[in-house]
Write a structure and sequence with these properties.
By secondary structure, this protein is of the alpha/beta class. It has two domains: 74 residues, no CATH class; 178 residues, Rossmann fold, CATH 3.40.50. It is built from six helices and 13 strands. Strands 5-4-3-6-7-13-12 form a seven-stranded mixed β-sheet, sandwiched between helices. It has a four-stranded antiparallel β-sheet with strand order 8-9-10-11, with no helix packed on it. A two-stranded antiparallel sheet has the order 1-2. Helix 4 links the parallel strand 4 and strand 5. The longest helix is centred in the N-terminal third of the chain and has 14 residues.
Length: 293
């Protein structure tokens, strides 16, 4: 799952500081690594249905394009078994199942798993959904392909990242492919100065709240540590502000390629967000396509 701002809002460039809340500015202020209440946010996300999609998630038209590109890049044919890591409410998996694939989705947030199960059953789709952590899955040579979206992998520490890659490799049949969306270090990143950008959204509702509120989204970059932070401050019309954050590590392409190799993968190529073009040297959000050896 992810927390992208709704497309119908207009960001303001200079966001005022909410009162009665100190704005954290140092990397050490953002401890623990992640404070987002995923179960609670998942329940709220499901109340934010927006046509065929969900407020805060990728729009259906983009998901359709990515599904088609993933099936092509993973070199799959109808009937193949696919593992959807971090499946959320099933936007990718159900589209794949509708094309004749057998899809297993896994997500740590039980509310979206229950929702995805109900929708797939109502549509008669071949989907299996599991409420579990990636790090606890225990498949063996079961899948013809796997994918992970939304740069979720950047939020895992080194040991946990290695464990995830090992478990994904074990879940795949030899020769199967794994597509992973991630944020990589831009050239010269460690030499850059720390930065901060802000956007303020005024919303009647969002995945953060059913009530009218302001959502201040701060994006902080700490190049010397190789990390970034997304800091969310929710300011209701009444009551005290709430804050949540998530840290993530920028991944060096060479180091990530080595991690893949240690887990039993061979990197085949880097791709742009559309999964069609070779990666641009200035891009940060990219896809890695690897083959299980």
């Amino acid at each position: 799952m992810t927390s992208e701002p709704a497309t119908t809002t207009t960001p303001r460039e200079a966001a005022p500081r909410p009162r009665a809340l100190r704005l954290r500015s140092r990397l050490e202020d953002f401890v623990p690594f992640d404070t987002i209440p995923w179960e609670q946010q998942a329940e709220q996300l499901l109340r934010c249905r927006d046509g065929d999609g969900y407020m805060g998630l990728r729009p259906p038209a983009r998901v359709e394009r990515e599904v088609a590109a993933l099936l092509e890049r993973l070199e799959l044919t109808p009937g193949d078994a696919i593992l959807d890591l971090g499946c959320g409410p099933g936007m990718y998996s159900q589209r794949m199942a509708a094309r004749g694939y057998a899809v297993t989705g896994i997500d740590i947030a039980a509310p979206v798993i229950e929702h995805a199960r109900a929708e797939a059953a109502a549509a008669g789709l071949s989907c299996r959904y599991l409420a579990a952590s990636f790090l606890s899955m225990d498949f063996t040579a079961e899948f013809d392909g796997a994918f992970l979206t939304n740069s979720t992998i950047n939020h895992l520490s080194g040991d946990r990242l290695d464990e995830l890659l090992r478990r994904v490799r074990r879940a795949l049949k030899p020769g199967a492919r794994f597509a992973c969306e991630l944020i990589i270090e831009p050239q010269g990143f460690h030499a850059q100065r720390p930065t901060e950008t802000r956007q303020l959204f005024e919303l009647p509702r969002s995945p953060w709240s059913d009530r009218p509120h302001r959502w201040l989204e701060r994006k902080l970059s700490f190049p010397a540590a190789g990390e970034r932070v997304v800091h969310h401050i929710i300011v209701p019309e009444r009551g005290a502000p709430r804050e949540y954050w998530s840290r993530f590590a920028m991944l060096a392409p060479e180091a990530f390629t080595a991690r893949l190799a240690r887990a039993g993968f061979a990197l085949e190529r880097w791709l742009e967000q559309d999964l069609r073009a070779p990666v641009n040297p200035d891009s940060e959000l990219v896809w890695a396509l690897a083959r299980a050896e």
